[in-house]
Amino acid sequence: MTTLDRLIQRWRIFKAAAHIPRGATVLDIGCSDGAMFKLVRHITRGIGIDPLLTEPQTLENARLLPGLFPDALPDGDVFDVITMLAVLEHVPREQQRVLALNCASRLRSGGRVIVTVPSPAVDRILDVLRALRLIHGMSLEQHYGFKPDETPASFIAAGFTVGVRERFQFGLNNLFVFSKR
């Protein structure tokens, strides 16, 4: 990751962290190197899952597991919060409803799913930044023109309510916080 990649990642993490209650147990889907758990010290316990990890890792307050959600998770684990920061735009539309249902099954009652997704203009900007070697860009080839307005439908259908929706990073990124009914 370049310095700019890290800056953008940290901005997303801190935006999401404001919606993670102190002492929460957190599942971070698409955790990369576990930056969420390294930076957000008020997370009591967490699990990060990422398909690009090659082996399990242990951090002070989290375990990082290679694989995909929900298959890589130990049976029975439930969480207060599930985060997906810059992940949903990589998940094919036809799989998003199942993803939301799997999130609901792994959350405690009243739990939250925190999602960030980029605005459509971001792909063009990231292509330029990558060409200039200012970012590595993580799996940009998987973006498919995802629109942030598509985000709530799958989660509402899975029994969530929309608690927060806001734009940040100069309008180039979107934050959603869904609550399990």
Please provide a written account of the structure.
By secondary structure, the chain is an alpha/beta fold. The protein is 28% helix and 30% strand. The chain contains five helices and eight strands. The chain has helices spanning 3-17, 35-39, 93-105, 122-131, 151-157, and strands spanning 25-29, 45-50, 57-58, 62-66, 79-85, 107-118, 160-168, 173-180. Helix 3 (93-105) packs across helix 5. The N and C termini lie far apart (37 Å). The model has no long low-confidence stretch (mean pLDDT 90).
Secondary structure topology:
Blueprint lengths: L2 H15 L7 E5 L5 H5 L5 E6 L6 E2 L3 E5 L12 E7 L7 H13 L1 E12 L3 H10 L19 H7 L2 E9 L4 E8 L1
Parallel strand pairs: 1-2, 1-5, 2-4, 5-6
Antiparallel strand pairs: 3-4, 6-8, 7-8
Helix pairs in contact: 3-5
Mean pLDDT: 90
N-C termini distance: 37 Å
**Quick one: biggest sheet?**
8 strands, mixed
Overall radius of gyration? 15 Å
Number of domains: 1
Give the total of beta strands. Answer: 8
Order of helices and strands: HEHEEEEHEHHEE
As residue ranges, the low-confidence spans are: none
Full CATH superfamily name: Vaccinia Virus protein VP39
Helix count equals: 5
Indicate the CATH architecture.
3-Layer(aba) Sandwich
Class by helix and strand content?
A: alpha/beta
Spatial arrangement of strands, main beta sheet: 3-4-2-1-5-6-8-7
